[in-house]
Amino acid sequence: MSDDRAPETSGVAASPPAPDAPVRQGVFASLRIRNYRIFYVGMAVSMTGSWMQATAQAWLVLTLSGSASVLGLIVALQALPVLLIGPYAGVIADRVDRRRLLTVLQALMGALAATLAVLTVTGVVEVWHVAILALMLGLGHAFEQPARQAFIHQIVGMSLIRNAVTLNSVMVNAARAVGPAVAGVVLTLVGAGWCFAINAVSFVAVVASLIALDGSRIAQETPVPRAKGQLREGLRYVRGNPSLWIPLATMALVGTLAYNFPVTLTAAADFVFDGGPQALGFMTSAMGVGAVVGGLVVAARGTIGLRPLTLAALGFGITIGAAALAPDLLTAICALFLVGWLSVTFMSTGNATLQLNSEPHMRGRVMALWSVAFMGSTPIGGPLIGAVIEATNPRVGLGVGAIACLVAALLAFLAHRRSRERAATDL
């Protein structure tokens, strides 16, 4: 049954649930809200196309260059704008109408995908073309990510944000399961250009969904007036709250060295398992399926806070290590299923912890820092992991990511314990 209540307005921040406490909800609780259903379906179509493009783009670059380092550089270029202007993009997300901003950005990113499709289908594409378009796409993502994360809260409200964030992660990873698998078939049959063309068309769905939303059912947050020092204000706000800076620091480390799967899995599919684009599709899809299953578990009964975030990082590291040591493709696919499960648990726990501990007028800036930690760390980690793979092999590249997760879990545990000791002393 549809629940079309308008989400609570944002004038007063609701008290977050107790940290580490399980919150029981129906698996699809947030989808009872009609606006979120419409937005969710549009994003699901677009995300599937985006994963098709990511897979095809990685394979195209590796085919054109024959170098994992070049592939890592292209991945880094796409994430570079998030690193450089991500925090400022969060300020913009707090200043403007997020729905309008998202509509414009999605249309522009669709045009970029169409341009790459034309270049590839006509046979004139070169690595530098891909690099420029990847950089421009990353610029769109820099502004889109914080606006979309904060906009979800406007649609579903405080009580359902954890469920909505988790289902959003499920959707992204379901797209990760379907998109690369379809891309593998399309790559084999007609080439990368048609993957890019399909992605360009998929953006129509998300633009249409944004236009179709019922504006009266969207919580209206008063835009933050333009003023000097708003970026510094956001950084000070995060620095003074351990429930915010610890998840961000943990994600920064994990994002830099572990979330380089377009590089590590592409190289492993080709150089370790000699399986071609179909092997890459199966490996990436296995992660997506695992993330869907894990995400549904978290959506039904999940926890928020620093302790479950630490445990998720620990499990994430162990499963990546298992994938790195897999003796054959089938074992790697099984391990990557678990990698996907722990990946979505880690991401959704961190994301929901930030959203529930952020004040409404700061949420765009906080979520921009989350995007910087997750995507903006790739310009550092992408080339670094690519160079590691060039010097050694893809297994070592995955192993570095596994170690990073384990170190992040340890640091988060120690920081959390220290912050609790300080709080107890202050009392």
From TrEMBL:
InterPro entries recorded: MFS_dom, MFS_trans_sf, TM_effector
Protein name: Major facilitator superfamily transporter
Organism: Gordonia paraffinivorans NBRC 108238
Keyword Transmembrane helix attached: yes
Subcellular location as annotated: Cell membrane
Membrane topology annotation: Multi-pass membrane protein
This protein's record includes keyword Transmembrane helix: yes
Swiss-Prot/TrEMBL keywords: Cell membrane, Membrane, Transmembrane, Transmembrane helix, Transport
Transmembrane feature ranges: 38-62, 68-89, 101-121, 127-143, 155-175, 181-213, 242-259, 279-299, 306-324, 330-354, 366-389, 395-415
